[in-house]
Amino acid sequence: MQKGMLFVVSGPSGTGKGTVCKRVKKELEISISVSMTTRKPRAGEIEGESYYFVTHDEFRNALKRNGFLEYAQVYGNYYGTPKAKVLEKLNAGMDVLLEIDIQGALNVKKAFPDSILIFLLPPSLEELEKRIVARGTETEEAIRLRLGESLRELSYVYQYDYCIINDELQDAVDAVASVIRAEHARVRKGIRELIQSYEKSIKGGFLL
Predict the structure, then answer these.
(1) Which tens digit of pLDDT belongs to each residue from 67-121?
(2) What is the mean pLDDT of residues 30-50?
(3) Is residue 122 a contact partner of residue 168, using CB atoms and an 8 Å limit?
């Protein structure tokens, strides 16, 4: 059985990563990995769907057991991708979509060189500020910190495979879905093995 493919969507806070990934899941047969975090839930977030919300001690215990595909500390909280669930789905032939921060995405690329990294951008910094303010969960100081961090994070875009601007939501969803479809059409190891099996069949006289 051919293994599933690992896709990673990340970008500055406020670019709409979560919304885009949820819409992509509705259009494609793909599993979204649920991350674990020590931060407090925001309004509307659901345990086990948005995140696995845990204490710092619980997170550190999982870390000691080597239980994460990647993890990072962002704004004083830990975020991590549970390893076992992702590997189980990939080995079963299912595609997996990760929505994680930039630091985590680059760590995944090191561990899984075949993973596909997609960088999601806002149409402008002004629009990014509007989106963060619209959340109503950040202080003015926190917003300034996030915007400053966003400027720094933009420099990592060149380490990604694709860059998509999330201006109109459906356009961004269509673009991410197109990337996933296109990557399945690329000539990869599994396809080479299939072609080689065809060649062996012809040489063996099975088709003549």
Answers:
(1) 999 998 877 899 999 999 899 999 999 999 999 988 889 999 998 899 999 999 8
(2) 91
(3) no
The residue with greater pLDDT, 46 or 204, is 46
163 contacts 169 by C-beta, under 8 angstroms: no
Q: Are 11 and 120 in contact (CB under 8 A)?
A: yes
- The rounded distance, in Å, linking the Cα atoms of 34 and 153 is 23
SS3 113: coil
CB 26 within 8 A of CB 133: no
Identify the CA nearest to 11 among candidates 134, 157, 142, 132.
Answer: 157
- Kindly give, in sequence order, each residue whose CB lies less than 8 Å from that of residue 30, ignoring residues fewer than 6 positions away: 7, 24, 94, 95, 96, 97, 180
**How far, CA to CA in Å, does 153 sit from each of 13, 85, 130, 138, 160?**
10, 28, 18, 19, 12
Residue type, 34: V
**What pLDDT does residue 147 have?**
72
Return the pLDDT at 127. Answer: 72
| C-beta separation of 207 from 201 below 8 A | yes
* CA 152 to chain centroid: 19
Phi, psi at 149, each rounded to 5°: -65, -35
